[in-house]
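TL;DR need structure tokens for one chain.
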Amino acid sequence: MQPRDSGTMNARRAWHRCATASFAALGFVALAGHAQELRIASADCSQPVHLIAKDVPLSTVLKDLSLSLHFVVVYHSQTDPVVTTDTRSPATDLVRALARNMNFSLEEAADAHCAEGRRIARLSVLPDPAGGNRAVVASARPAWQTPEMERIARLGMHDYLTSHGMADQPMEELAVH
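>> reply
TL;DR here they are.
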């Protein structure tokens, strides 16, 4: 065996340690840039749930909520939006707010221990509609309410008011508040 030069070995070890530390630091920086955070506090249906989520897919948030609040979640959507929130609200309101842009069905069960006497039993996030168009915009007025029907209704309201000795008013002013 030949004796090795200790100076060369020390330099190699130092270089190896430095390279290892650099790669580890680079890995931590990359992970910190894309870190996901999910915390659920007060997971009880009788109290508001405190949810903290940072860049977490909706399916993961709902799955963790279902484990904490003991309900079934079925996620069939192809889209999985990222959730970032820090909120405290009742469980049902929280789940509805999280899934508001999704096509979902929420089933509740009676439970005297929970707020408002009910708890979430099952949440189903349904598949995306064919064509991918989520937004369905309702028309401002029903199809049967044509301009002619509106004119007849206004005329009938005018006749009714005048026959009862009242001043003619627009229908919007007569609405019950």
